[in-house]
Amino acid sequence: MIHYSLSILPALLSGARMTLAVFGLTIIGAIPLGLLLSLGLLAKFKPLHDGLNLYVWLMRGTPLLLQLIFVFYGLPVVGVVFNRFDAALIAFILNYAAYFAEIFRGGFQAVDNGQVEAAEVLGLTAPQTITKIIVPQTIKIVLPSVGNEVINLIKDSSLVYVIGIGDLLRAGNVASARDVNLLPLLLVGIIYLLLTAMCTWILRRLERYYRYYR
Amino acid sequence: MFQLENINQSFKGRPILTDLNLSVESGSILAIVGPSGAGKSTLLRLMSGLDHPDSGRFLINGIPYEPSHRKQGARIGVVFQDFRLFPHLSVLKNVTLAPIMVKKQTAKAAKIAGVALLQQLGLSGQTAAYPFQLSGGQRQRVAIARALAMQPEILCYDEPTSALDPSLVANVAQLILDLKNQGMTQIVVTHDIQFANQIADQIFELQPKEVQKNDEA
Ligand SMILES: Nc1ncnc2c1ncn2[C@@H]1O[C@H](COP(=O)(O)OP(=O)(O)OP(=O)(O)O)[C@@H](O)[C@H]1O
Ligand SMILES: [Mg+2]
């Protein structure tokens, strides 16, 4: 059994690398984009605000799986073609950015307006107030919700399976079907658990760090 | 001398301040008293530039002054009723942030000045603490230090006694009088007439709506 596990491990690890690539690049793309969108959601300019609300509604109101299929199998019908990996990233980043945008919007709104006024009477400019007062306090507020999404993303990344990307889940499924063996799927489960445990640990550390103030 | 000239402010057509004229001698203490809803906080927000009056203007030593222009730092400092310290910054950083960001002091110079200011206010043991770790009285003194670090010409307080234990009221009164001795012009909004009598050179009574009168203390 150990021998068999070792023999399929390279394939699983290569799948895990793909899972991590989708995960990491989605985080790198979706968090800044979500931040930008959240500023738009808070903007006074109504068309922008309404447009972004519609966007968030669509992204959160339809399955990510549908969005993934739409980008990879649907768009080529109208002549827009992406390779598998790019299609996955586009769908994941656009979807997760909508979730992050809502989280950041709520976080910004949760910072007491008195803080902004205190900064204002001291003469801080708006950019200084945002970077020195609002953002640091927002990070603490949004950290638990962002953490939830990050953990979800690790598991959601397995959806790329449907457009034929060789991620961790696919590697396990292929080995399991080929060898008629349950072990690959159990190992896949263990690797997902390790990944989510690692993320949880990092997030806990961050939350603990931000407990230095109340 | 700080003057308010024909200040008018109304909210949704309801006049709160009408043709308000008021002046404070440099280095003196003006107390603004009046019942709840008279417009005391409204007036303070106008003086600190958080809101704009419908009409009227402010003068410092006879020269028009726009409170919302604070490129080099405001000439009017504010101590809020709820202090509004920055919770994520240490006491010292609360005090040095604006001098560094706005007055472009070096971090080192701001720190030296901040430590001296905190020491003067009896907070030398708290420089590294965070606001949540302080008592109400200590928080208020940090708020005062934060405002003083910007070297304002006038310092305003909104209800400085309201968030404090009654036993600490005498301490605030003493602190305000000490600052007066150092030449600071101060405007204190309060509903506590006794406190006003204790500290003020001049008491201005703000009446809800029309009737307003000015007595010399
Ligand atoms: N932004 C605003 N919009 C509408 N009405 C306002 C606004 N700010 C203040 N008011 C009204 O103006 C009046 C004066 O309010 P203000 O807070 O200045 O009173 P105050 O004298 O400070 O009272 P208190 O002693 O209770 O603090 C109140 O009736 C209040 O409801
Ligand atoms: Mg008030």
Automatic annotation (TrEMBL), chain A:
InterPro entries reported in the protein's UniProt record: AA_ABC_transptr_permease_3TM, ArtM/GltK/GlnP/TcyL/YhdX-like, MetI-like, MetI-like_sf
Matching Gene3D superfamilies, A to Z? MetI-like
The biological processes this protein is annotated with in GO are: amino acid transport
Membrane association type: Multi-pass membrane protein
The organism sits in which domain of life?
Bacteria
Cellular localisation: Cell membrane
Residue ranges crossing the lipid bilayer per the database entry: 20-43, 64-82, 182-203
Q: Which family does it belong to?
A: Belongs to the binding-protein-dependent transport system permease family.
What is the official name of this protein in its record? ABC transmembrane type-1 domain-containing protein
Automatic annotation (TrEMBL), chain B:
Tell me where in this chain the ABC transporter domain is found.
Answer: 2-217
Q: Which Pfam families match?
A: ABC_tran (PF00005)
Instruction: Offer an example of a GO molecular function term for this protein.
Output: ATP hydrolysis activity
> Hey, what's the signal peptide range on this chain?
none
Keywords, alphabetical: ATP-binding, Nucleotide-binding, Transport
Sequence similarity = Belongs to the ABC transporter superfamily.
Instruction: Please identify the protein, giving its name as recorded.
Output: ABC transporter family protein
Taxonomic source organism: Latilactobacillus graminis DSM 20719
Identify the taxonomic lineage of the organism of origin: Bacteria, Bacillati, Bacillota, Bacilli, Lactobacillales
